[in-house]
Design brief:
The protein is an alpha+beta fold and 143 residues long. The chain has helices at residues 5-26, 48-51, 69-77, 92-99, 114-122; strands at residues 33-35, 41-43, 57-61, 83-84, 108-113, 126-131, 136-141. It folds into 2 domains: 5-43, no CATH class; 48-141, Phage tail protein beta-alpha-beta fold. The chain is built from 5 helices and 7 strands.
Amino acid sequence: MKLTKTSLFVLTLWSSASFASNESQNNLPKEYRQNLSGYTQIIVDTDAEQKDPLIKVVSIEIPSSIVNTGQALNYVLYATGYQLKDLRETDKETLNLYSKKVPLVNRSFFRSTVKQILQTMIGSAYDISIDHVTRTITISARA
């Protein structure tokens, strides 16, 4: 078998990439690595969406039985484990937003993250802050 400069370069590049890949996997803690065979090793980890449910990409349609924006926000958050801040602690402007009717254009979303849907539904006049410890979403009017 005759090795040309090109094939030697490709072989060197492949072996260095393989070595770098193995090095980065070997730096992972043991509980994140699993050997499937003598040559195959996989990294055991959860999906990013499982770690942060608000970045899950969903397609959602708000049912016609949901009339107000506050109800629609709760509907979008339902499966994430997050909830809106307690209404007793919510400012007047945000309560006003929650009581508005859901715009027709905001009733259907295709392949968007939950966070993007929330931001779209509340509009540019409001900010979202997320407390990951209590899994609470606070929406407040921009100053």
